[in-house]
């Protein structure tokens, strides 16, 4: 009986021990999976960090989208009271992307500084709730004038700048737009010096750049009657144009360049109807007109050509260029 009982006891007792080992293995595997999943989430996503960064201007997700989205953990260092550096990093080599956000006071006339326009037909242009320009590599947004006392610089125009600073890295244009708009609102809402009731309440309207294309020299920049019929590069290269907006929209930006010219546009032309940008021309000698009930500015930023270069390009001088452009654009918009 004793031997029979011993065998029976062993037979009955074995299965629980096998189930215990299997259960321990499952629990251990689950724990490892949770640990790895948590580590992956920590190092490659922002699910564990829903707070705001960069002086409270943006969220980690807004910053990540501006840098192109994808996996990577976002962090920020506040370099000064008016700037910060945002970093998106992951486990894999080469996953280190950086974005700079800073507020400065630009000189009066920004973004239409003589010889250095910061508005271009190669960038998206914002108007309405947020005024500015951007592409996948960065952008800027105008801030209310009352913010100037809070920012670095000796100018009168407060501006928020965003720039991708990691080499050979492009972000996302739509993400950059959203970042600039969100940071501008947060910055103003969070600063007593910048408080501006109603700022950003109007919907932001975005105009996208056209593809670079060969210019129709009988209708330059898509403006009927604007002709540069003999224009060409110094070596006979064709004229290339890129356009944002149209006369019918009340604002237009057009860049003209010679095909293959590494010096960039030889002319930047603008029909400016946005009141916030029209204000940049206060006190400057520009052509103005009333178009569709709005004060509108016709502005040009032209590269200097000496007499021999001008003869080779068949371009009019500054006075002739201005007259051709403003008369044609004004007629196309039926300006008074």
Write the layout of secondary structure elements.
Blueprint lengths: L1 H43 L15 H7 L6 E8 L2 E7 L6 E11 L5 E2 L2 E2 L6 E5 L3 E4 L2 E5 L14 E8 L8 H17 L14 E4 L5 E2 L24 E8 L4 E8 L8 E6 L2 H4 L8 E5 L2 E9 L4 H7 L4 H15 L4
Keywords: Membrane, Transmembrane, Transmembrane helix
Descriptive tags:
about 325 residues; eight-stranded antiparallel β-sheet; alpha+beta
Structure notes:
By secondary structure, the protein is of the alpha+beta class. The chain has six helices and 16 strands. Strands 1-2-3-9-8-7-6-10 form an eight-stranded antiparallel sheet. β13 and β14 form a beta hairpin. α2 runs antiparallel to α3. The longest helix has 43 residues. The radius of gyration is 30 Å and the shape is globular. The N and C termini lie far apart (119 Å). About 6% of the residues have low confidence.
Quick structural gist:
By secondary structure, this protein is α+β, with helices and mostly antiparallel strands. It contains six helices and 16 strands.
> What is the CA-atom radius of gyration, in angstroms?
30 Å
User: How big a fraction of the residues is strand?
Assistant: 25-35%
* Helix-strand sequence: HHEEEEEEEEEHEEEEEHEEHH
* Net shape: globular
How much helix is in the residues?
A: 25-40%
Keywords: Membrane, Transmembrane, Transmembrane helix
Transmembrane segments: 24-43
